[in-house]
TrEMBL record:
Catalytic EC class: oxidoreductase
Molecular function in Gene Ontology: ferrous iron binding; protocatechuate 4,5-dioxygenase activity; zinc ion binding
Protein name (database record): Protocatechuate 4,5-dioxygenase
Gene name in the database record: ygiD
PANTHER family registered for this protein in UniProt: 4,5-DOPA DIOXYGENASE EXTRADIOL-LIKE PROTEIN
């Protein structure tokens, strides 16, 4: 039998940045740790990340998903990291049932592991790896509305002590990652500020149309799979999404903004 928490948990969009975020917390790591410390401890985390995308939804259903090092060319110590949080087959069943109620067929997957988009930020949120964590695959779509509706379908889990987390990046132009940069070029922070100001204004129509309305949108996201988890987190907060909090993370390497956002945050 599930336990109803006194108040629904907020939902979270986190910028997971480079895999090196696991070793180099920068400004964002302590901010995520402070967020986790001030909200009720979740019964489990359900995460969506663009590093596990499928045509039709799948959910991790194993009792102990592996830590996947789905990247290359980084220091050896990064590959030695493990995030051994348990899985949550019961929560996976709840996710499947809720989505089925919205006409979405979900396949249970007991073989996949947790990708770095999930375990890297969780090393700062719950470093003891003692909160069960599952992943829901990100639909292979370019539509923010699809992710918004996916989040809305799972919104009732907030009242059951589940932290619903979309993990991506508020800016994600890797073409510029190692390119020479003008120190006076602040496009990443300008795009991030627009996104936050639009969230704070409660303008969902503009957020869904960010690609034509936001400054530097196509430059900040040549492809938009890393921004779409934001809409999952926003939708999962239900009508409470306008009570939002900005969790500042600065900008790393000139191109990766590390801000995160909490939706339905009681302290907002």
């Amino acid at each position: 039998m599930t336990t109803t928490h006194p108040a629904p948990l907020p939902t979270l969009f986190v910028s997971h940045g480079s895999p090196m975020f696991a070793l180099n917390p920068g400004e964002a790591g302590p901010v995520l740790a402070a967020f986790a410390a001030r909200v009720p401890r979740p019964r489990a985390v359900v995460a969506v990340s663009p590093h596990w995308m499928t045509r039709s939804p799948e959910v991790l259903a194993s009792a102990q998903p592996a830590t996947v090092h789905d990247f290359g060319g980084f220091p050896r110590e990064l590959y030695a990291l493990d995030y051994p949080a348990p899985g949550a087959p019961g929560v996976a069943a709840e996710v499947i049932a809720l989505l089925a109620g919205h006409g979405v067929t979900v396949q249970a997957n007991e073989l996949a592991g947790r990708d770095h988009g999930t375990w890297v930020p969780l090393m700062h949120l719950y470093p003891d790896a003692d909160v069960p964590v599952i992943q829901l695959s990100q639909p292979a779509t370019r539509s923010p509305l699809v992710l918004l509706e996916l989040g809305r379908a799972l919104a009732p889990l907030r009242e059951q002590g589940i932290l619903l987390m979309g993990s991506g990046s508020i800016t994600h132009n890797l073409y510029e990652f190692r390119a020479p940069r003008d120190p006076d070029d602040h496009y990443a922070s300008e795009f991030t500020d627009w996104m936050w100001n639009t969230i704070a204004a409660g303008d969902l129509e503009a957020l869904l149309d960010y690609r034509t309305r936001a400054p530097h949108a196509v430059r900040a996201h040549p492809t938009d799979e890393h921004l779409l988890p934001l809409y999952f987190a926003l939708g999962a907060a239900g009508a409470a999404w306008t009570r939002a909090t900005r969790l500042p993370g600065g900008v790393t390497d000139g191109v990766l903004a590390m801000d995160s956002f909490a939706f339905g945050d009681a302290t907002a």
